Each structure stands twice: as structure tokens, then as C-alpha cells.
Amino acid sequence: MKRSPETRDKAVDPARAAARDTLRAVRERDAYANLVLPKMLRERRITGRDAALATELTYGTARAQGLLDAVIVAAANRPVDEIDGAVLDVLRLGAYQLLRTRIGAHAAVSTSVDLIRSEMGMGPAGFVNAVLRKISQRDEDLWVDQLAPSIADDLVGNLAFRYAHPRWIADVFADALGGSAGQLQAALAADDERPPVHLVARPGMITAEELALASGGDVGRYSPYCVYLPGGDPGDLDAVRDGWAGVQDEGSQLVGRAVTVADVTDDSGRWLDMCAGPGGKAALVAAIADIDGARLDAVEVSDHRADLIRKVVADLPVDVHVADARASGLAPGYDRILLDAPCSGLGSLRRRPEARWRRTPADVAELVVLQRELLTEALRLLRPGGVVVYSTCSPHPAETTEVIADVLGQHPEVEQIDARQLVPADHLGDGPHVQLWPHIHGTDAMFLAALRR
Ligand SMILES: C[S@@+](CC[C@H](N)C(=O)[O-])C[C@H]1O[C@@H](n2cnc3c(N)ncnc32)[C@H](O)[C@@H]1O
């Protein structure tokens, strides 16, 4: 029997309790860990080292779920769907600590047992104790050697297991990387790590050097606006609170910048961001538009996300339109269009801990249709000589190169230009598109292609 929160043992560790409750929200109501946890930490006044521990345990457990479940199934000798959900959350949390942290086995097991005993009593606590003790008898490598497909028979399956990715996503990465096993291993390993926080210094408001000084960070490798934050809560920085800076992956910054630096003769200053919510790229593009004397139309289909854009572009030359970008009613003739298309997000899995276990190949099939329709409309809205930058935070060829090839095939008047000229980074491959990678560039796996009419 589950006890109510009021009757729970007050002695349970608050950091682990927050991690458990977040994992439960993710499992039961499809919540997003990175939205639930920060709010919970604030409400429960969990700060400092406890907050850091709760964050590490929650995101790490969510990211590694498939690997942890395979180990739990082997140790418990029963399938996951025969384990009570609340017990499973605590087993995952305990297994993560045992396999992937330096927390001692005794602490990992006893705090997990406390968590479950306070809610569900002695019986389930005994089960958790037995399973976690069994897991603690081997380290991660030994479990992987025992449970993963063999390297000789199924290299991709082995790497997918080892770096906690669903098999189909490892196949997509392998495909996008052109079949190199070394590259695949590096990509999956980088995607399995806690990602660094990147800040964007919005041009005309603060420079990257000033932001680096104010935040104790380092200026980015590629984006002239990027700062790598070494730690701490970005929301504590004055520059972020004042809207001069924001949290934004360096790859996203490079995409936003690319649309502003493409060669467009006689730019009349009509710029469009077709899928703008929540406004990260719109804020960067609009800050540059402000300097260049241009104006940005930002289209977004969701009311809530349009509100988020309005907040982040206040005081910048932007008109926000709530509309389906395939039929927005805006007049053609844009000089520059950013189409940051809705996508599977397979390129930013490291920043969305549970996402890899939720996505399915069917999501991709649906999105591809929308992406083609949006790109077709982008070309209709573009003036001759203007440039569309098409981007996704996904390296999935179906969402990237295949969308471009398909739409180009239907528009002989459109040429693909070399996007490498628009991105100040190295290791950009053969072009004409750009595919960034966490293991090569330290960015999310953003894709961009540039088309001119
Ligand atoms: C990848 S996100 C854009 C991220 C954004 N550019 C940023 O940097 O913050 C895609 C956005 O497109 C929106 N969207 C989806 N379908 C749309 C449509 N048909 N028309 C306009 N926006 C759409 C989604 O709601 C989502 O906010």
C-alpha cells in the first residue's frame, strides 16, 4: 500500500526523494524532467550540493534508462512490466548510482531502501534491497559485457546498449555518420554525457567577452556570441535576468547567425523566422536585425510558445504571428528566411534526458511530411535572390538531406548554396549542407542547409 506524502518518512534524503518524484512524473504523466525538477527544487527549497545531486541523479537515470532496465531485469529475474512503477523508479535510481556514480554501494542501496520503505513498507523494500545488492556485485562494464549483443555479431547493437541509446537511434546516427564505427562510438558516448551549458551573448547588448567575465566562463570556440558556463545556475546571472544573454546551445547560435550572414544583394530588411517558438533563434536573429536595420516576422503555431517568443524579443524589431506557417497569410518577398523545422530532436537528446526512450520511428515519418510542406512554403515566401536556411536539431537523413533533395527536385529555380561558408567552424565535411555533432564540435547535432531562389 502506498502511503500519502504526509506520512512518508521524514528521514529520506531530500535530493533522492526529488529525483524519485521527478522520475515518477516522467513515467506516469509523460512530464519533462528538465521542467519538473527545477520547479520541485525551488518549491522544496533544495539548493547547493543537494540540488546538484538531485539533478545529476535524475537526468543521469533518465538518460540511461534502457541500460538500467536491462540490468534490473537480469538481476530481478522478471520483466520490467511486472515490476510496480514506484518500485521501478527507485530501482532505476539505485542502479544508476551503483553503475554510473562514485556513490558507495552501501549508500546507494540503503538510501533506495529508505525511499521505498517510507512509501510502500517492508515487502517492497526487501525486494529493492535484494535486487540492488545483486546489481552491486558487478560494475557497469561487466554488466554490459554480459548483457549487450556481442561486438562481433552486432556492433551497432553493442554500442547502442553500452551508451544507453535505443537501437533505432544508434542506426540513425550510424547512417548519418556514413557507417564509421569509430565515429558512431564517439557520437553515442558524447550523447551519453551530461551536456555543458552554453550561453548566448545577444549582439548589441553584451559581448561574449563581457559575458565570459561576468559569468566566469570561457568564450565559445565557434559562435562569436557563445560562452561556456562552467557551472552554477544561469538564471542567477544579471545578464540573463536582463535579457542580454540566454541559454542556447552553440550549434543553435551558429544556425541563427547563418541566416543573417548569407549573401543577399539589396537586402530590404524583411526577415522571417517561420517556426520561432520558444524564440531562442528569433532573439539572436532579431538582435542582429536590430543592428542591420532589418525587421523580423516570427511565426509560431502554438499560443503558449508565441508568448515565450514575445518575452524573449521584447524591445527588438519583431512582429510575432500566431499561425500555421504553411498558411500564415504573410506576403511573399522575404530576403532571409529561417526555417528551424519541428523535428524529432534526435540531435539534442543529451539536453532532454528522457527523450531518447520516448521517441519512435513513427514520429519521424509524420514530421517529414510537415517539414517538406514548410520548406515548400518558405520558398514561395522568398524573393528571388533571397536565402532560406533550413535547420533541424536532428541528424536523421530523412529529416535533413532527404527533405532538401526532395524539395529541390520539385523546384528547379532553387539552388543549394554551400552552408559551410555561413558557419565559422572546422570539420564541416564535404558540404553543401552542414551537420554539427557533439563529439566533433561540442554542439548539439544541428543540421543546416541554405537555399537561394
Ligand atoms: C524546433 S522548434 C523551433 C525552435 C526555435 N527556432 C528556437 O530556436 O527557439 C519548432 C517550432 O515550430 C512550431 N511549429 C510546429 N508546426 C508548426 C507550423 N505548422 N507552423 C508554425 N510553427 C510550427 C513548434 O510549436 C515549435 O515551437
Could you characterize what this model shows?
This is Methyltransferase. Pfam families: Methyltr_RsmB-F, NusB. This protein is an alpha/beta fold and 453 residues long. It folds into four domains: 5-140, NusB-like (N-utilizing Substance Protein B Homolog, Chain A); 148-191; 197-247, Alpha-Beta Plaits; 250-452, Rossmann fold (3-Layer(aba) Sandwich), CATH 3.40.50. Helices cover 50% and strands 13% of the residues. It contains 20 helices and twelve strands. Strands 5, 6, 7, 8, 9, 10, 11 and 12 form an eight-stranded mixed β-sheet that branches. Helix 5 (85-100) packs antiparallel against helix 6 (105-120). The model is unreliable at 1-8 (pLDDT under 50). The structure holds S-adenosylmethionine (SAM). S-adenosylmethionine binds at residues 252, 275-281, 299-302, 305, 324-326, 340, 342.
SSE diagram, text form:
Blueprint: H1 14-29, H2 33-43, H3 48-63, H4 65-76, H5 85-100, H6 105-120, H7 122-136, H8 140-147, H9 155-162, H10 167-176, H11 181-191, E1 197-201, H12 208-215, E2 218-219, E3 226-229, H13 238-241, E4 245-247, H14 250-261, E5 270-273, H15 280-292, E6 295-300, H16 303-312, E7 318-322, E8 334-340, H17 355-358, H18 361-381, E9 382-392, H19 401-410, E10 415-417, E11 434-435, H20 438-441, E12 447-452
Helix pairs in contact: 1-2, 1-3, 1-5, 2-3, 3-5, 4-5, 4-7, 5-6, 5-7, 6-7, 9-10, 9-11, 14-15, 18-19
